[in-house]
Design goal:
557 residues; alpha/beta; Nucleotidyltransferase, domain 5; 7-stranded mixed beta sheet; 6-stranded mixed beta sheet; 20 helices
């Protein structure tokens, strides 16, 4: 039975999921059900297993809280180490027919001329990192947590939409999102402005996803529309690079970018380095990688309208299938390409699991005590509100971090625990209204989705049923399913996505958590209260940020 492998390069770890799909006597689908199973899951935690790179929670320490970079060598080293882990779990790597992957969105990797040649010369007897140390024109990679490009965002928006387009509507209509600090286009513009020599030396700019696919295939990989849309550089409707956005970002940029290709594109066979070093088949296909959010869309089976998923990871994200692009008028949400060839809506909250961990640690709790605090406190928390902006927030756009408490004593651990969770769920509810969908079912994924106390609050505030998934690594699973889809398509088939995800992307029916009707009115009032507190805090933060920007402009010279 052939294996399909999905790899997810996230902020704090690299994970892999291997699956089997064996068609029944009538082929896959209703006429002949396929046998489907997850063969193995493996993971490498960056901080625990690769501490030599100096990252904390996968991010390099920086005195400026707005700057967030990671070392690309860390990701490459983890990729080299994941295959022995899979072997230890009994995976026969020679049976892998196709590999696809997901990368944390918006992160960018900068390579010198000759990088492909260096990959072709790799010695399989030596670790991957030893052969690629000299290929980078930039030692570190800005990632999605970086919020240091406000100036570049405004410059790009003004160039695309004119000086009167203060909300970046023209850019959002063109690319699916207004300019966001973490997006790749503003990050490239900052690199060009601050290091023109480094930019000139750069021959190819990859995303995390296309960089990892490049390592696997030994040739420059393409970018798919799901990950390309997270750059402020792609024409969302045409799925090609948008000239106006490129020109607004940096000179000669198109020549430095890989082309955009559909998500089922086969980059090529796996590199001989991985064949000889790890025993992969020379016929195994490398499929274009995508972003973690588009891959998670497939991993939780959102291949048609009607449901949403919430991923509770390093960041919290809310996303759903979208047949045609509908852009958020408020400029907070995003529209990306979906691996199905359609689109997906997404909202990202930077202060996700790390915010919950900071509250937990502040009161010297473990996760068991955290759960007990949720059980011991009452829904609505007596009107206590916490805005958990430990780091600059993406949704809503808050550049100056700082926790805000309303009617909440900082010394009261249990109520602060409930407040951080209720605040996060209220923010998701409020900022997802632009999608225009009445949510009836939520698929919960990510590490914190194992916590049923958190999921109960999610169900109550959204007024929707919540289901857990048997495989927590939804991005890696989605990548494996994309590998299966692309392999069948390359073989001349036209596999239906319903068939591709069947048997894998199925919630645990017994895990159903229903909203409690006795708290419906209370939580409607709580959401209104949260909105009032958020508006108050955002107004003050906006005034401070505006004054700081004016000060910097006046004193730049």
């Amino acid at each position: 039975m052939p294996h399909y492998l999905g790899i997810d390069s996230s902020t704090q770890s690299l994970s892999a999921v291997a699956i089997d799909v064996e068609p029944g006597p009538g082929g896959a689908g209703p006429a002949g059900p396929a046998r489907r199973r997850v063969v193995a899951e493996a993971s490498i935690n960056f901080d625990q297993e690769l501490p030599q790179y100096g990252a904390r929670n996968g991010v390099l320490p920086n005195p400026d809280p707005k700057v967030a970079h990671s070392p690309p060598l860390l990701w490459a080293d983890a990729l080299d180490r994941i295959f022995p882990k899979l072997k230890e779990l009994g995976v026969d790597l020679s049976r892998v027919r196709a590999i696809a992957g997901s990368g944390q969105q918006h992160g960018s990797v900068y390579l010198k001329k000759g990088a492909a040649e260096a990959l072709a010369r790799l010695d399989p007897a030596r670790p991957l990192v030893e052969g690629i140390r000299g290929i980078f024109s930039r030692a570190s990679s800005p990632i999605w947590m970086d919020s240091s490009t406000t100036r570049e965002c405004r410059e790009i928006e003004a160039s695309v939409g004119g000086s009167g387009d203060a909300e970046g509507r023209a850019l959002a209509k063109l690319t699916g999102s207004r300019a966001f600090e973490r997006f790749t286009g503003p990050q490239i513009r900052k690199f060009y402005r601050e290091s023109p020599g480094g930019y000139a030396e750069t021959d190819r700019i990859h995303l995390v996803s296309s960089f990892m696919a490049t390592l696997l295939s030994g040739t420059h990989a393409t970018i798919d529309p799901g990950d390309g849309a997270g750059m402020n550089l792609m024409d969302l409707a045409r799925k090609t690079w948008a000239k106006a956005a490129l020109d607004a970002t940096a000179p000669g940029l198109e020549a430095k970018l890989p082309p955009v290709r559909e998500s089922w594109t086969v980059v090529g066979p796996v590199s001989s380095y991985f064949v000889k070093r790890h025993g992969l088949s020379k016929d195994a296909r490398v499929v274009v990688w995508s972003g973690d959010n588009p891959c998670s869309l497939i991993g939780v089976g959102l291949v048609k309208p009607g449901r949403i998923a919430i991923s509770l990871g390093t960041s919290d994200t809310l996303f759903g299938f979208m047949p045609a692009p509908v852009v958020d008028e408020a400029g907070e949400g995003h529209v990306f390409g979906a691996p199905t060839g359609h689109y997906m809506s997404l909202i990202c909250f930077k202060n996700g699991s790390l915010a919950r961990e900071k509250v937990r640690d502040a009161y010297q709790m473990g996760w068991r005590e955290f759960d007990e605090a949720l059980r011991a406190t009452r829904p609505g928390n007596g009107g206590a509100v916490l805005l958990p902006w430990f780091d600059p927030e993406i949704t809503p756009n808050v550049l100056e971090p700082g926790v805000r408490r309303y009617a909440l004593d900082a010394r009261d651990g249990p109520r602060n625990v409930r407040a951080v969770v209720e605040g996060q769920m209220a923010a998701m509810f409020l900022h997802s209204k632009w999608m225009g969908v009445k949510t009836e079912t939520i698929y919960a994924t990510g590490g914190a989705a194992a916590n049923r106390e958190i999921l109960q609050i999610m169900a109550d505030i959204h007024g929707a049923e919540v289901y857990q998934f048997p495989v927590g690594k939804s991005a890696a699973l989605g990548a494996a399913l994309r590998a299966h889809h692309a392999d069948r398509k390359a073989g001349g088939q036209e596999p239906a996505w319903d068939d591709v995800v069947a048997g894998f992307a199925e919630p645990i029916r017994e895990s159903r958590i229903a909203p409690r009707p006795q708290y419906a009115a209370l939580y409607r009032d709580f959401v209104d209260l949260y909105r009032t507190c958020e508006d108050h805090a955002r107004h003050r933060a906006t005034e401070r940020a505006r004054a700081l920007e004016e000060f910097r402009k006046r004193n730049e010279s």
